[in-house]
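note to self: dont lose this again. the chain is below, predicted strucutre after it. 131 aa total, dont forget to put it in the shared folder this time
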Amino acid sequence: MNEPKVQVGILFESKIEFSFPTPYVINGKKIVGMQTAVYNNGKILWLNNLYDELVFEPIDETKDEFELKEVTIGINFHWERKENQRFQGSLKIIVEDKKLTGINVIGVEDYLTSVISSEMSATASLELLKA
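---
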């Protein structure tokens, strides 16, 4: 049985910069290194071509990661800032409201593990951390 996937919106900008430390695949072609996608009149401009959406798939879902540049974290909190963040799974880029949305497509188990661990405190009891 295939594990269900969730799509998590990470970034909403007119330009998305991202990189693949290891090759990812799109339309049967391997892509590696730094990339930039730009909103252009209702389309995504990437490598001098226009697209409705882009979906980059990892070759090895258990190891491969992509990095999104300048992700805003802590939105509307006093510690709001931008930082580069790495994600496992696929990267999907779509057009929404005259901008681009960067989406992490990931297995539900991996997603839940990352959410739970990100909400844990280092001062939590050992029993809570084990659960």
